[in-house]
Design brief:
Blueprint: E1 8-13, H1 18-31, E2 37-43, H2 47-55, E3 59-62, H3 75-93, E4 97-100, H4 107-115, E5 119-124, H5 131-136, E6 142-145, E7 158-160, H6 175-182, E8 189-194, H7 200-209, E9 219-224, H8 229-238, E10 243-246, H9 252-258, E11 261-264, H10 268-277, E12 281-283, H11 292-302, E13 307-308, H12 313-340, H13 348-357
Parallel strand pairs: 1-2, 1-4, 2-3, 4-5, 5-6, 6-7, 8-9, 8-11, 9-10, 11-12, 12-13
């Protein structure tokens, strides 16, 4: 049965970042499990996006990008082109509805879907709604949010669904086998360090400057260090601390399986994943890109479901104290995290989408 033979056809539109793309991918995974439903993805060109879509055997189209900038004199022309391309895609596909997960790239599709009178479902990942979600207040039929905070969104059309997680990131492995594979000890506390795609340098430097406080303790590390991999691996070796250092690691579920503590950014996707795995974390919000990560982190920190560390000189000095506190409060944080979780464990996003479109 081809896509044109399906009873219900859905366009899923995502931006270029993992924070926008992976919830879209997870929603697509859930939707295609339903009989008679097909999806087609629309994404800007990024090789890692197309790799994932091909791996999952999804149909997809590449869409043009039009980033707003007062200094970009070509923006109006690019936006109009992106809008008309979106109209063409929707007309060709004869879709029943559109699912949008945010980013400036999706705005032309949002407007085109409204023009065609299609049902529009928008998912907001962060605690504070982004610009696309704010615009969607006047356009979308349904808005789903990851955090139980509706801000100024329409209460009759907004639902708390949690953050959908790709199945690959939830897969369970045998912990003992993985520790042996990584050359790590079963008797040590394993700390997983995730720099993230933005601002990994601060987290790397934070750990390098504080390696002395781990020396001689039963603590070992798995560290995703980006371009600083070689230098960090050497520093761990010189301090005689067990560590596996990677620039990047594709299969995150393997790392979550062996982790006891996570040190990470406060992207909604990362917080949803540590919720899914019930992993206590020291969370360092990225202070730029609109500062939305701070509000994500504060939601967890205020509920004693993580320890929050600011990216500044004070954070450098307080890290040893906060890490010691984490070691002492791991059990309490894990219990609180179960209540604070933003992971969509019940497939609520897919249920809401199908109810809405049917």
């Amino acid at each position: 049965m081809t896509m044109r033979d399906k009873r219900l056809k859905i366009a899923i539109v995502s931006g270029p970042t993992g924070g926008h793309f992976f919830p879209a991918l997870a929603i697509g995974e859930g939707i295609v499990k339903e009989e008679g439903v097909a999806v087609q993805f629309f994404v800007p060109f990024r090789r890692y996006l197309t790799v994932w879509l091909e791996r999952k055997r999804f149909e997809y189209r590449i869409i043009p990008e039009a980033r707003f900038s007062c200094r970009n004199v070509l923006f109006p022309a690019r936006f109009i082109y992106a809008f008309f391309r979106s109209c063409l895609y929707l007309a060709e596909g004869k879709f029943d509805g559109v699912v949008i997960t945010g980013s400036y790239v999706t705005v032309p599709f949002l407007l085109a879907a409204k023009l065609y009178g299609l049902k529009i479902f928008v998912h907001e990942q962060n605690y504070l709604p982004g610009k696309v979600t704010k615009l969607s207040r006047f356009i979308a039929g349904r808005i789903a949010v990851s955090f139980p905070f509706l801000s100024n969104l329409p209460r009759n059309r907004t639902f708390v669904t949690g953050f959908p997680i790709v199945s690959d990131f939830k897969r369970r492995f045998h912990r003992e086998e993985l520790l042996e594979e990584f050359g790590l000890s079963q008797d040590y506390t394993t700390v997983l360090i995730l720099g993230g795609s933005q601002g990994a340098v601060f987290i790397n430097e934070l750990i390098m400057e504080n390696l002395g406080c781990f020396k001689g303790k039963k603590i070992q590390f798995i560290h995703l260090a980006g371009s600083q991999k070689e230098g960090l691996a050497d520093r761990y070796h010189r301090h005689k601390i067990q560590a596996m250092v990677f620039d990047f690691y594709f299969d995150m579920a393997r790392l979550y399986t062996v982790a006891d503590i996570v040190i990470c950014r406060a992207g909604a996707g990362t917080l949803a994943e540590i919720s899914e795995w019930n992993l206590p974390a020291i969370v360092i919000p990225y202070p730029y890109a609109g500062g939305h990560q701070r509000y994500n982190a504060m939601y967890f920190a205020e509920r004693k479901s993580c320890i929050m560390l600011e990216q500044n000189s004070t954070g450098f000095k307080k890290f040893p104290e906060l890490f010691e506190r984490m070691m002492n409060e791991m059990g309490t944080i894990k219990r609180n995290l179960r209540q604070t979780s933003i992971s969509d464990v019940n497939g609520d996003n897919v249920k809401r989408i199908l109810e809405f479109l049917n």
